[in-house]
């Protein structure tokens, strides 16, 4: 597996990975209305390009992709929020999950000096919560958030070295 910085020409592939992974993960959690709203509103390519360009230009932002045989199969986007790195996007295509790709993407972020790292996950996303806690993240708190017209409990996790 190779990890590299995302470039604007990756935006279409990143969009497709986010959409495929999100729909697979949240199939049973979100209503049909919320899923339709996500498909319509989430990850427009111009927003992905903007985030990639911002990460290229700023020290407080990180956007990398993971590749297998030259094909992007996952990505991570994190931002520095007052000294704490927040993972705002971490997706791996379902058929490549549980192969260490998510761990490698987070590890690369850590090698760049990111610490502490936080992530917010829908509380009913048990697969992501298990993945993160097995990697050393601790559950810190829970709140609620409206996501695409649906109120969901959200768990905040943090990893400190």
UniProtKB/TrEMBL annotation:
The keyword Cell division does not apply. CDD domains: NAT_SF (cd04301). Keywords: Transferase. GO terms for molecular function: acyltransferase activity, transferring groups other than amino-acyl groups. Residues 1-158 form the N-acetyltransferase domain. This is GCN5-related N-acetyltransferase. The lineage of its organism: Bacteria, Bacillati, Bacillota, Bacilli, Bacillales.
């Amino acid at each position: 597996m190779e990890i590299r910085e995302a470039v604007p020409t990756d935006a279409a592939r990143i969009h497709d990975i986010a959409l495929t992974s999100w729909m697979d993960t949240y199939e049973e959690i979100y209503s049909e209305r919320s899923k339709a709203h996500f498909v319509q509103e989430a990850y427009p390519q111009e927003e992905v390009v903007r985030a990639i360009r911002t990460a290229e230009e700023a020290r407080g932002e990180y956007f990398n992709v993971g590749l297998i045989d030259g094909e992007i199969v996952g990505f991570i986007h994190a931002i520095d929020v007052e000294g704490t790195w927040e993972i705002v996007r971490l997706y791996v295509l379902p058929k490549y999950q549980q192969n260490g790709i998510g761990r490698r993407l987070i590890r690369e972020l850590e090698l760049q000096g990111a610490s502490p790292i936080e992530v917010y996950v829908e509380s009913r996303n048990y697969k992501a919560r298990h993945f993160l806690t097995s990697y050393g993240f601790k559950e810190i708190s829970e709140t609620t958030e409206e996501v695409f017209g649906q109120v969901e409990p959200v768990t905040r996790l943090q990893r400190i070295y």
